[in-house]
Specification:
Two copies of one chain form a homodimer. Chain A is of the alpha+beta class. Chain A has six helices and six strands, in the order H-H-H-E-E-H-E-E-H-E-E-H. Chain B binds a DNA duplex through helix 3.
DNA sequence: ATAAATTTTGCATAAATTTGCACACTTTTT
DNA sequence: AAAAAGTGTGCAAATTTATGCAAAATTTAT
């Protein structure tokens, strides 16, 4: 996996796990984890990931993943070509939207390559219902699936 | 005080109507509308309203309301579908039964008109699996969907 | 009504974020 | 293999946003 993709996933992870209030804090966490990067790059990364500073329940500023788990226009262009449009969660379930007709094929890829994290999938024409195994967090599922999609390209 | 409430509403309105990319732009709009206010106050107002700079579909920065209210009355008269037989819940999932062959069409209507509340649908021939977004109660889902299909019965 | 308490606001400035530019690195084309 | 095109990055500076503080406005209590 390319270094940038790895870093983007790490950012998602950090932002999910920690209360990050500014890019300086994020920068420190990333450096802690061995990423040699600057605040300017993180600013661009966050823009690409569509992660913005929001207000949490206490009314304090914090970086948060939007409800949209990922949107391939933000990811590598290759993701779009394989046909994944979006991935979102509701409760323990994930729903992936794909190009029309692609759901079955992509679901088969997920079954074949992510069975350790994914209990099963049900595909329609352009929608896949993804049932994660117990014990996998959303961010883990997102990372696994986005890595999988990255690999397919 | 009353003035502040009025201003907060005006901010919501402006942010919804115009593509506001920074507080300076918002400031100008507000002054245009006769509000005598400063950027500092707008910063505080936005914090109170929990309106933050987000990224739109073009990947450009823009202030956005996070919780757009779904308004069924806007959608109700655009839906003229028949064929829904039942709607029942199991956990967070809803299952709609339709006349044979209608599931796909009705699911498309739901996707098109209730995306605010429905994360996704998967249609077979006469059954639609409906996955509500988090934060929507069964009653809300029922109301939204029955508004959508009220012309049926 | 007056005083006290609370909230709101502007000013100035600190803090935080974005971006132009130049260069390094990668991929594609010829 | 070299040239061209595209991508990613750091640096420094510009832009944008948040906030401490004191004053003004508003609300509440006496």
């Amino acid at each position: 996996m390319k270094n940038k993709v790895k870093r983007l996933n790490a950012i998602r992870q950090v932002v999910t796990d920690c209360k990050i209030s500014n890019q300086e804090e994020l920068l420190n966490k990333m450096i802690e984890q061995g990423y040699d990067v600057t605040q300017a790059t993180l600013s661009r990364d966050l823009k690409q990931l569509k992660i913005t500073k929001s207000l949490d329940n206490n009314g304090e500023y914090r970086y948060l993943l939007t409800n949209l788990a990922f949107n391939p226009t933000n990811e590598a262009d290759t993701v779009k070509t394989i046909g994944v449009n979006s991935l979102e969660f509701s409760g323990q379930l994930a729903v992936m939207k794909t190009r029309s007709g692609y759901a079955g094929g992509i679901a088969a890829e997920i079954d074949a390559h992510a069975a350790d994290a994914i209990l099963g999938t049900i595909a329609g024409d352009d929608t896949i219902l993804i049932i994660p195994r117990e014990g996998f967090s959303r961010i883990e599922i997102i990372n696994i699936l986005s890595n999988l999609i990255e690999h397919l390209s």
